[in-house]
Write a structure and sequence with these properties.
Layout (H helix, E strand, L loop, with lengths): L11 H6 L7 H7 L15 E4 L4 H11 L5 H14 L20 E7 L4 E8 L5 H11 L4 E3 H10 L10 H12 L32 E6 L5 E7 L20 E4 L3 E7 L1 H5 L3 H10 L4 H15 L16 E7 L4 E5 L5 E5 L6 E4 L1 E2 L2
Parallel strand pairs: 3-4, 10-13
Antiparallel strand pairs: 1-5, 1-11, 2-3, 2-6, 5-6, 7-8, 8-9, 9-10, 11-12
Helix pairs in contact: 3-4, 9-10
Length: 357
Amino acid sequence: MNQPSGPIRTPRRRFLQSAGLTALTGALASRSAWLPTARAQTAPGPVVVASGNGLQAAAKAMELLQQGRDALDAVIAGVNLVEDDPKDNSVGYGGLPNEEGVVELDASVMHGPTGRGGAVAALRNVRYASRVARLVMERTDHVLLVGEGALKFAKAHGFREEELLTDAARETWLRWKETLSNQDDWLPPHTIDTLDVGQNVKQALRHYGTINCNALDQQGGLSGCTTTSGLAFKIPGRVGDSPILGAGLWVDNGVGAAGSTGRGEANLLACSSVMIVEWMRSGQSPEDACLSACKRIAQQTKMKRLLDEQGRPKFNVSFYALNRRGQFGGASLWRGMRFAVNTGEQASRLVDAAYLY
């Protein structure tokens, strides 16, 4: 295995010239203080890459990969640990609810060797959204099922309904309700210059979560999964990027896999995961491709209510990528994101990601 011995910082000139987004150069040069802390590293398969809450998921996935299992089996088994964990209030059981106190789950899966994918959105009362998404892929001629239809489909295949709102999540929701005021997603009429609406919700209570997990198996197969309870206290029926193939997840077995966490609305407008895979196809490393996605979102964010005084997005979006050669990388809009990696040679570890700001 040929891995760097420590972080390598990419020169600023290379940052400005990469990704082919030359129209962005001037704006980002003045708005960004980008100093990447990690480069894409190389390891032979099997390899697992996940969001920062995926240390145990990556370990479980690697355990199955080392047994010769398919990458999709591995990533779903990995994220199931998080879907089961009531302490992770952004995924599955224990996830924070919508504004009416109901937990709604979204998930997507893609299987590289067969080029298939499946997803569910606004799924209630079933904690394993990732498994239901896989069944959509394997047992229907569809790609996405939502709401009541997704629940009926899950029940038809033996999933039992259960209450997903834990006492801890209910307490957090009630505190939000008690201090609601204008801190929700209902906006009055506004323009691109309006500053005093939206993004006012207390960040201590309102956050984005999600787990993304991608893997390369011993047979060279790539697969990925993204699963979430979505934005806390969202408008019922809101769907973010996680179950949307091309946005929250994309896998091309000839190139690589990519997924995301963070503000789903921003990523839905950018369809970043498919773009990351295409940038890797054109020769970019996984890390550079993730950075290109961050720059694209920075360029597309024009509503002033979403920007700080320096014109930078006030939210965060993070990306994770893995190519067919076992190279991996990650990047986010804001400094401080770490992602989980397991190459089978040591325990799952957190790796510092590159960043724009």
